Structure formats: C-alpha cells, structure tokens
Amino acid sequence: MTVVAMGPAVGTLVRDIVHDHLPGRQTRIVVIAMSRDANPKAIVMVFVEGAPSPLLALKVGVTQGACRSVDAEAGALRALAEVDPTMVHHTAPRVLELRDDPLGTALVMVACPGVPMAIDYHRWRHTSRPDPVRRDFSRADRWLRQLARRSVPSGDPLGWADGIRARFGSEVAGRRAATATQSIEGELGRPDRGALVHGDFWCGNILHTAGVVSGVVDWEHAVVGGDPVRDRVRFALSYSLYLDRHTRAGSPVPGHAGLRAGRWGAGIGYAVQGQGWYPELIADFVGDGLEATGRTRDLWRAAMLSGLAEIAVRSDHDGFARAHLELLGELVA
User: Fold this and answer.
1) 8 Å CB contact between 70 and 61
2) Section 24-39 average pLDDT
3) Which strands form 151-152's sheet, in the order they lie side by side?
4) Residue 1: pLDDT band by 50, 70, 90 thresholds?
5) DSSP letter string, 131-193
6) Which of 29, 196, 286, 328 has the fewest CB atoms in 10 Å of its CB?
C-alpha cells in the first residue's frame, strides 16, 4: 500500500478502511484534496494496482464540523438512492459505508469515473470561445434535467433574507442586502414542484467522459424538496466568477466584450448586466429552469441575485461570503 501526504489520524483511518474493503489487494492511496479551513476534510482516492481509475473514494473529517458535513453527504446520497435507485444513471457515488471512528468520520463510496470539468475550464482560452462554453452548459443542462425528473414533495422555502440578517444584520450593508433579497424572493416565488438539489453544482464537482457527465460529486449541501433552479444558478455564478482568471488585471477579457479583468466579481456583473453571447447563454440556461418549474424566464436575473444571497449566507469562508454580499448590494443598487 502506497500512501501519499496525509495526516497521521487520517492516514490510520484510511489504512483501516482500505484493509477492510480491499483485503489482500495491492493499492495506491492518493489525497486529491485537503481543505485548509476550520473544518478540514480529506478527499482520498484508492487505486487497485494496475487499474487506471480509482476504485474507491473516501471523504474523511476529523473535526466536529467536518464530521457533520460528511454525515450530511452520506444522508443526501442515501436519500437520492431512495428516490432514484439508478443514482441518476450511475453518475452519483454509491455509499458503501459511513464509518464513525475516534479518529474521525469517513464516507466510503464507489469512485465516479471521469475528469473534472474545471480542468477544461482553465485551459487556454477555453472560456473565451462560445462553442466550448456552450458545450459545458449543455452537459450541465442535460444532467440537471435528469435530476429534476426525480420529483419529491416540496420542502419549506429557504429564506436567504433571514440568513443575511442573522449573519450580517449588524451592518448597514447587511440590512440593505436582506431587504433587497426579501423583495427578490417574493418576485421569484416558489417552484411548482420540489426536487433533490445538489447544492454545490459547479465545474469542480462535475466529471465528464467522452462529452457527457459521468460523475457528480460532493453532495454534502444537497437538500430534498428544494428549488432545482438553485443548481443552475450555482453553476452559472461559479462559471462567471472566474472568466477573467487568466487575463492581466485591467485588460479586456478575450471573447467577452465589455468585461475587464481584475475586479472581484466582474464576471458575475457582466453575466447579469452585460450584453453579448455569454449573458444570453446565462439567461437561457437559468430561464430554462425557471420555465420548467412554472415560472417566467424573465426572472433569470432575480434568480442569479438570489444565488448571490445564498452564497453570502452559506459559505464557510467569511471573506468569500462577504464578497458575495457586497456584490449583491452593487447589482441591486
């Protein structure tokens, strides 16, 4: 067994799990992510000798907060299995075990095949050309349509305005954003049916093979009975946020007339308020989801603003949350 770069507690727990699930097999263990926040989680892939793709995927938490997140992901995947035994045509990880141990909590899953969409996203000029960007959105659209077919009873609506008041209500900007968000939520209304919502649907969590989505990972923020448009908005916001990542600050972003690099959130502002093929693509992508849930397509901008409010409420990173709050305030002004 080869182990690559992990802490002693995580390493011991992972070795025990691999021994139990793959006894006597020669394996290679690779940590592909180890978050550095207050509640870090390790993402571990387990390869069997000679196999080009991992057989098992493990998510391990060693703090109370991280362990709660791992528990939440296990619950979401089990809920999905009850609604859809095919796990959306075998693109969601299948849970093998949730292990609570004094060293931490580990979710053991069958690994999904494929390459993260984020790798293509950051290739040279990928996001500057309409065709590859449209292909990315088309793949996301097809998968989200499949997920949305698994209807479930609608849950209680999530009030991001209340969440902003709870997190930023002592600040003038927070109170203004909460008031604007409450108005936006009233304008959007509720979907005509509920769905299982992934909750963190962005390029880094989407795997693809041969032009189709072959895996969608990281289900810890999933909810049952939510508004399926949330996943479309999350994808659109995250895709827009980094459009200027590879352009020198102050320079025009290739392929996006009117967008200049260097100001945080400029890509989102361009997507919501700009003109051209990319904002039109965002309007269609989000509008399709609104129309499919009994609402008008013209509310796509309101849906995008609601997505900013959601991130301001739910992000574990205070700076990232505040940046979205401030951008929301600018765009509704």
Assistant:
1) yes
2) 79
3) 151-152, 194-197, 223-226
4) very low
5) HHHHHHHHHHHHHHHHHHTSEE---PPP-HHHHHHHHHTTSHHHHHHHHHHHHHHHHH---SS
6) 29
Calculate helix-pair angle for 300-314, 229-241, nearest 10 degrees: 80
**What is the third-level CATH fold of 115-332?**
Aminoglycoside 3'-phosphotransferase; Chain: A, domain 2 (3.90.1200)
40 and 34 Cβ atoms separated by less than 8 Å: yes
User: pLDDT of 76-87, one tens digit each?
Assistant: 999 999 989 999
Q: Token pair of 50, please?
A: 């000679």
260 phi/psi in degrees, rounded to 5 = -115, 145
Other CB atoms closer than 10 Å to residue 144's CB: what's the count?
Answer: 26
Give Cβ neighbours of residue 211 (< 8 Å, ≥ 6 apart). Answer: 135, 139
Fold for the domain defined by 2-110: Phosphorylase Kinase; domain 1 (3.30.200)
Quickly count: other Cβ atoms within 10 Å of residue 164's Cβ: 28
Task: Indicate whether 233 pLDDT > 50.
Answer: yes
211: left (phi > 0), else alpha (psi -120 to 50), else beta? left
Q: Position 164: which residue type?
A: I
Q: Are 198 and 213 in contact (CB under 8 A)?
A: no
- Position 34 scores a pLDDT of 66
Strands in the chain per DSSP E: 2-4, 27-34, 41-48, 56-61, 95-101, 104-110, 115-116, 151-152, 194-197, 206-209, 212-216, 223-226
Domain boundaries, the chain: 2-110, 115-332
d(CA 189, CA 201): 22
Q: How far apart are CA 2 and CA 195, in angstroms?
A: 41
* 169-219 pLDDT tens trace: 999 999 999 999 999 999 999 998 888 899 999 999 999 998 899 999 999
